[in-house]
Amino acid sequence: MSQTPRNEMNIKIANLSLEHSRKKSKKISTVKMVSITNLSPELLLSITEYISSRDILNFGLSCKSLFPVCYRALWSCLSLTPSTKKKGTWPGLQITPRFRSRVRETIENFWVNSPGLVYTKHVEFGKFICGDGDEASILMQLLEDGKLNPRCIDFSLSVSDITSMDQRPVIQRLKKYTESKSLKELKAQLYSEAGYSLSATVDLAKVTKLTFNILSNGYRPVAETEERVPRRIQDITAILQKAINLRYFSWKAETERKYSFGYISEELKDLQEAFTSLQRLKTLKIENYLFHPSFFLKPPDSVQNLILNCVGSTEWWNDFSACPLINVTDLRFHRPPLLGNSYSNELRGFLSNDDNLFPDTIKIEKIAVRNLETFLCPSEAVPQELGFHILKGNPKLQPEYKLELSNREAKRFVKKHYNRFESNWELSKSYLEDLYIRHYLNNPDPMTELEVIEVYCQMCFMGEIENGYVTSWDNASKRATDIGERCKADLEQKFPNYIRYGIHHYTLEFMEGLDDVDDDEFKKECIRLYEEDNDKGQKYFIARSLAGGCLTAMVNKFRRAFDGLRKKIVKDIAEKIFQDSDTDEKTLMSNWIERAMAQLQDFGVNKLSLEEVTGD
């Protein structure tokens, strides 16, 4: 098996290094491995972060001197929620779905009298600390007695927790407990399915992570329909005004009705002010939309990580584009759960009929953000130009993200300009036929296949880019055809071969600048051409028949070579974009055509004459 150049180089380097070491010393030194028992407890504790809890347990049991560190690692974080991480926790310290009915038994057997609780710094209570089961009071007692003294607690609130909290003394005890601690002593991370009354369950000043996943029944009941949405916004605003130490905020909510932006504009201003005041916020995540698809929430200047899973209107994208996102270094667009018709249906009712309902068709001119290092997004969830503007405006992008964007932009760029000529394929072929017919009528020597392809590239590709030749020919042909159709009745009996010839003649005349002709002038010209050369009309039809038969095969041969280079062209353009080199449509097509022509010439296409085809 042959070695690649890189492998051969590596082998040479390895051989040189080995030879050098042999010359330097004839003795082979051995490296003494440091015993793991001699490592510091701090380093051992760091190592335990990368192995599973079961392995930590086996590790500690296998060596008596390592047991204290392993024991501390096992009890540092306790969880009553099913693990979503690859690294699970010690069996018995975590409540998995199959153990859900044995929560109290597990807590009493493993937690209550364990000396390991003194090492516990983080507890994931899940729904159990505020639930209606017996385990809630046991957990709360551990906290109040100081046997469990974590620095961070995670818990979740359901709608039923909020609506029945007057009948649950444990919720008032939790509120009192969080109020008794300073932020340095205790931080809370809260997941809530309700959007109101959170301040009755916890001291919101201790909440550093707040995740909303609000169900349709998760808002405060309001009798008046018109007051429902404004009141919902006011409730969220009130929560944020008290949660002044938030580091992380995530939003997802269901809505059961649609409404105009103006209906809630004043409440949204207050909501924006509440967010602006969260100067410790580092991560902001919005899924779908925050009360309205046209409301773009300007993140506080402190935000570094922005995660958007958006259903947004044109106005939303315009506001996003204009926002500098001063300290955001990590921007991620996740694929919205609604795509296609579902996406547009979600927007209808919020927007007017004139609004664009699909993000990939929204046009943006520029992006204000300048400090991104990380950028991820699915292409169908954002405007097509977004990646290009991100690339141009963010020089600090890490190479892997810049490379991904460069490849995506190269594909988009090539596709955009390729599709332009793909859509003009039939027009280009008809235009080439007219050019070939004119050459056939006016030149004794036939065109070679390569000459035909060169004319096609020069006039239909580059001519369209620089001067719009194909488009001009289409307009000129329509004008000439309209005149010919009007004169057909007067000419078709005596001069049947000259009507199409007259259309061909005036099409090219119009392209060269002739303003216009009336019906009489068209008739006179057809008669003049007939009187000058009676055989010219017949030659036109022969040329037209030949062109229709052979030109398509010639151009298809070129198109196969042209299309076969597409992946290589995309790769080249991606490299240019990655290196911040500009390219344009003219440069792209010129290089693409040149390479396709070179490929054809390598196969001897330039030697093929059309003499046999034309009969000359």
Outline the structure in words.
This protein is α/β, with parallel strands linked by helices and 616 residues long. The protein has a domain at 422-614. It has helices at residues 5-24, 41-47, 53-62, 67-75, 103-111, 135-145, 159-163, 169-179, 228-242, 265-276, 314-322, 341-347, 386-393, 399-423, 425-442, 449-467, 469-491, 498-511, 519-532, 536-564, 566-578, 585-602, 611-614, and strands spanning 77-79, 122-126, 152-157, 187-192, 207-214, 248-253, 283-288, 305-310, 330-333, 374-376. A 10-stranded parallel beta sheet has the order 1-2-3-4-5-6-7-8-9-10.
Features:
616 residues, single chain, alpha/beta, F-box-like_dom_sf, elongated, disordered N terminus, ten-stranded parallel beta sheet
Question: What is this entry, summarized?
Answer:
With 616 residues, the chain is of the alpha/beta class.
Gap from first CA to last CA: 56 Å
Number of strands: 10
Number of helices: 23
Give the biggest beta sheet.
10 strands, parallel
The proportion of residues forming helix, as a percent range, comes to 40-55%
Based on CA atoms alone, the radius of gyration comes out at 37 Å
| Mean pLDDT across residues | 82
| Main structural class | alpha/beta
Label the overall shape.
Answer: elongated
Ranges where pLDDT stays below 50 over 5 or more residues in a row are 1-7, 9-14, 24-31, 86-92, 607-616
Strands ordered across the widest β-sheet:
1-2-3-4-5-6-7-8-9-10
Determine the strand fraction and express it as a percent band.
5-15%
